[in-house]
Automatic annotation (TrEMBL):
Identification of the protein by name: Lysosomal dipeptide transporter MFSD1
Subcellular location: Cell membrane; Lysosome membrane
Function: Lysosomal dipeptide uniporter that selectively exports lysine, arginine or histidine-containing dipeptides with a net positive charge from the lysosome lumen into the cytosol. Could play a role in a specific type of protein O-glycosylation indirectly regulating macrophages migration and tissue invasion. Also essential for liver homeostasis.
Sorted UniProt keywords: Lysosome, Membrane, Transmembrane, Transmembrane helix, Transport
Subunit: Homodimer. Interacts with lysosomal protein GLMP (via lumenal domain); the interaction starts while both proteins are still in the endoplasmic reticulum and is required for stabilization of MFSD1 in lysosomes but has no direct effect on its targeting to lysosomes or transporter activity.
Species assigned in the record: Actinopolyspora saharensis
Any single Pfam family the record assigns to this protein: MFS_1
TM region(s), chain numbering: 26-43, 63-86, 98-118, 124-141, 153-172, 178-200, 246-265, 277-298, 310-329, 335-356, 368-394, 406-425
CDD domains noted in UniProt: MFS
Amino acid sequence: MRATIDQSSTSRTTPRAEFPAPLRRAWFVWSVAAACYFVALFHRSSLAVAADAATERFSTSPATLSVLSALQLAIYLALQIPAGVLADRIGPRRMITAATLALAVGSAVFAVSASLLGGLAGRALIGFGDAFLFTNVLRLAAHWFSADRFGRVAAVTGLVGGIGQLAATAPLSTSLRMLGWVGTFSGAAALTAVLALSAWTMLRDRPDGPAGHAERAEDTAGAELHERVSASLKAVVTRSGTWHSFWVHFVMMGQFVAVTVLWGPPWLIESQGYDPAAASSWVLLCVGGFLAGSWLCGQYVAGRPRRRQRFAFVLSMLVAVTWLVLIGWPGVLPAALLTVLLLIIGVAGGSAMLAFDGVRAANATHRSGLAVGTANMGGFTAAVLIQLAVGGILRLAADLPAGPSYRLAYLPVLALVVLGTLGQLRQLRLMRREQPAASTTSG
């Protein structure tokens, strides 16, 4: 009898190529794709650091400026299922190239725009390009790496994204001071365009040689069945492993995005009394926790189904306690406690990569793009809900001091974390209930 439903799902639906691609070439191809994901995270996070400059350039208020972040996240969320479908149908090489070009054009538009409408157009293009990258990078990895390596590759991909977020903190602030708005974002656009050209010339959807033929055979079999998108989606969303991964990502990534991209800097400045430079340093600490979480999961958790499930559930409960402390603490948080809380939030964000290890194990290889896209919706569904709820409560509590208003506004974050943790628990029970039937069938 197998230990977990994940293991039985993998044995049924994830055939391994008899002759795997040489690891050196696989890592080279992945590194080109991961570099595109690096710049996507840079562009995604850049607005939080450039918020002060953006309010001045667009002659608007911080509340109005938050529409840019909300729009970008909403586009990202809405395109996750299409991103997964296109990753499976068109192939990662074309999608990664097109998405990186969209980032470049969006950054160029953002650089030259002097109006809020132009800023919205630029961030919309950035959200569009960003939406297609992570799913396609992992779809590429599903072709180039064996199933038992996939979880570690997903974790390292998250690590690369975290470094991209780091590049959008102090380095971006320095560039804005030295090169100005137009120079900074035009330069980022030019470098991103060069990377898009590199992706087109260097990426291949699958390995050449015997391993490539094995993947083509699987894809051809799927094509001969004329499997419709609706049938693929049904096959993905009816698996408990898919929904477990959705809720893991919902809890861990949603609250991390809330702090690093949306409400962390204003909370630190207005409620905790830090200046903008110090607030950026605290956010940097949170991103450092993200890097640590990605590394930790890649080394010790990914590829081990039972350990992954236990780790994700315990960490989700710890995240709930973290937000309970953050909301319930009267007054300004002590620096030592704030350090611990932000590190936990960051480590959980990095550990969200475990969702893709789980969803890959639970679904067939030729549906891995759609499966990853479905799981990836979890965290960004939470992020959009947090954006709307926190912003709405802050507007209603505008007459209160900053400390109490933010404590009230963060209550929905705690509620969503608890909801996601309960969702994980429910899916774990369903997976264990399905396990005997799966083992009987396989035996």
